[in-house]
From TrEMBL:
It is found in: Cytoplasm. The keyword Metal-binding does not apply. Specifically methylates guanosine-37 in various tRNAs. Keywords: Cytoplasm, Methyltransferase, S-adenosyl-L-methionine, Transferase, tRNA processing. This is tRNA (guanine-N(1)-)-methyltransferase. Belongs to the RNA methyltransferase TrmD family. It catalyses: guanosine(37) in tRNA + S-adenosyl-L-methionine = N(1)-methylguanosine(37) in tRNA + S-adenosyl-L-homocysteine + H(+). The gene is trmD. Its EC number is 2.1.1.228. It comes from SAR86 cluster bacterium.
Length: 247
């Protein structure tokens, strides 16, 4: 997948050279073309922003550097403007974007970008959450990282994708590693039982329980099978008994 990123501080995207995204770049699964808007200034002083016509405080990125840069991007694909005013990103959108060959991301700064750039080039505005960042570069890093996990060959183990939170509209649940006993806190018996069926059932029940506890909004939309309901009821009873035992 090829992703073009237009930004005032493209160096902020350097963190994509580590971990899963870094490996994807090395394996040519992902190609990032960073475009520094400061290379397309408005004037000989190197400005890229200007005062808003509304008279409000702050500066707006001028449409001129962005359009100059956009005109040089060959395969734009879908064009996204990262903005707190966009639709909130979720796993479904990430998976949809991961099917594209080309993507162009525009990152704002200051008070944002001139609306005419949005009107002329942008297919979709995406927000990474209901809060305001100082710039779109970190949001672009978040968006690209989440997309890359879904590109074929990017993850060593394909199963981690299908087992991850949100893959089945539920959370993944608890994870444990060695030692079996850490300062008196033990790994659940089922996970060390050596019985694959028991482990599988524990994972289903734990995932449902965690989703119910942490994200009741997601849980209320789940259509549970009869088996899942029974597993969850048993798990909840065991948790209650555990708490009683603690008390
Ligand atoms: N004045 C804008 C507003 O109130 O909607 C906020 C501008 S913000 C300080 C500067 C830039 O950061 C935005 O143009 C956008 O690219 C990026 N940004 C800020 N919050 C974001 C969010 N939640 N999701 C995605 N991008 C965000």
């Amino acid at each position: 997948m090829k992703i073009n990123v237009l930004a005032v501080f493209p160096q902020i995207l350097d963190s994509l050279h580590y971990g899963v995204t870094g490996t994807a770049i090395e394996k040519n699964i992902l190609e990032i073309h960073r475009i520094d808007l400061k290379d397309y200034p408005l004037n000989s002083y190197g400005s890229i922003d200007d005062k808003p016509f509304s008279g409000s405080e702050g500066m707006v990125i001028s449409p001129i550097p962005i359009s100059k840069a956009m005109n040089l991007v060959k395969n734009k694909g879908k064009v996204i403007y990262l903005s707190p005013q966009g639709k909130t990103l979720n796993q479904k959108k990430v998976e949809e974007l991961a099917t594209l060959n080309d993507l162009t991301i525009i990152c704002g700064r200051y008070e944002g970008i001139d609306q005419r750039i949005v009107d002329e080039y942008v297919d979709e505005e995406i927000s990474i959450g209901d809060y305001v960042l100082s710039g779109g570069e970190i949001a672009a890093t978040v968006l690209i990282d989440s997309i890359v996990r879904n590109l074929p060959g990017a993850l060593g183990n394909k199963k981690s994708l299908t087992n991850d939170s949100f893959s089945d509209d539920r959370l993944k649940g608890h994870s444990y590693t060695r030692p079996r006993d850490f300062e008196g806190r033990k790994v659940p018996d089922e996970l060390v039982s050596g019985n694959h069926e028991l482990v599988k059932e524990w994972k289903i029940a734990n995932s449902l329980w965690v989703t119910k506890q942490k994200r009741p909004d997601l849980f209320s939309n789940l259509q549970l099978s009869e088996k899942e309901m029974i597993l969850l009821q048993k798990y909840e009873l065991a948790q209650k008994n555990l708490r009683k035992g603690d008390g």
